[in-house]
């Protein structure tokens, strides 16, 4: 049985976040910037994968607290997974040594880490991959252009993408995609049940490889996160 006292309390249930990142966008554009396992990584990394001003506009429409909350929850789960993984290694050694009770303890620890990994996967799939990919891309560009601030990187080094009216259809910071009370009353709250989130799904980027990967979807997303 899972050790529920080892599962951190987080602010947002990732399974209740609307799925705003389409699979093709995740696989073809965001994945090269994410800490994925070999099983999760595209077999042929898209050499043209980049952050764009189109993605930046979509990113900016979400209230900034969105990212603060998701990062805080991810840190809690990441820390818990690290601690559990280290303990699993130790208990595996005890099990091999034939110490009584070690096997049951090992099963409990593995059940526990699986619970956390699954909700981390849901967090990354629904929205958080967008934030992590953006941060990684900005860091890479600052390393390549140390004379620029991150703001200058965004507006000097970022290609436009398909920058259209849809990307700038709502004011910056005006959308709240999380299933908890918004930080202010005048935000557009996306609700999974009402499906008012569908028009705010980010543009997909399809390819033959991503379509094939979607069919055999078993990515084990968080194994290296």
Proportion in β-strands:
under 5%
Round the mean pLDDT to the nearest integer and report it.
86
Rg from C-alpha positions? 20 Å
Main pleated sheet: 2 strands, parallel
Overall form: globular
What does the model show?
The protein is mainly α. It has one domain (4-11, 19-224). The chain is built from six helices and two strands. It has a two-stranded parallel sheet with strand order 1-2. Helix 3 packs across helix 4 (102-144). It starts with 22 loop residues before the first helix and ends in a 10-residue tail after the last helix.
Quick overview:
This protein is mostly helical and 225 residues long. The chain has six helices and two strands. A two-stranded parallel ribbon has the order 1-2.
Essential attributes:
single chain, 225 residues, mainly alpha, two-stranded parallel sheet, 2% strand
Give the secondary structure arrangement, pairings included.
Elements (H helix, E strand, L loop, with lengths): L22 H8 L22 H8 L4 H32 L5 H43 L5 H7 L18 E2 L11 E2 L18 H8 L10
């Amino acid at each position: 049985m899972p050790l529920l006292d080892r599962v951190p309390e987080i602010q947002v249930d990732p399974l209740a976040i609307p799925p705003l990142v389409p699979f093709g966008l995740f696989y073809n554009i965001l994945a090269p910037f994410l800490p994925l396992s070999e099983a999760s990584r595209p077999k042929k990394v898209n050499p043209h994968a980049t952050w764009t001003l189109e993605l930046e506009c979509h990113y900016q429409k979400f209230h900034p607290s969105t990212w603060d909350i998701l990062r805080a929850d991810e840190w809690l789960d990441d820390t818990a997974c690290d601690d559990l993984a280290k303990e699993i290694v130790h208990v595996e050694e005890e099990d091999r040594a034939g110490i009584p009770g070690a096997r049951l303890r090992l099963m409990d620890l593995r059940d526990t880490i699986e619970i956390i990994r699954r909700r981390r996967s849901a967090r990354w799939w629904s929205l958080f991959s967008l934030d992590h990919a953006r941060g990684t891309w900005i860091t890479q560009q600052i390393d390549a252009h140390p004379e620029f601030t991150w703001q200058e990187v965004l507006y000097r080094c970022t290609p436009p993408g398909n920058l259209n009216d849809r990307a700038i259809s709502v004011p910056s910071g005006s959308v709240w995609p999380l299933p908890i009370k918004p930080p202010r009353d005048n935000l557009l709250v996306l609700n999974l049940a009402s499906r008012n989130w569908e028009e705010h799904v980010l543009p997909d980027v399809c390819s033959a490889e991503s379509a094939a990967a979607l069919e055999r979807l078993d990515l084990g997303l968080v194994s290296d996160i």
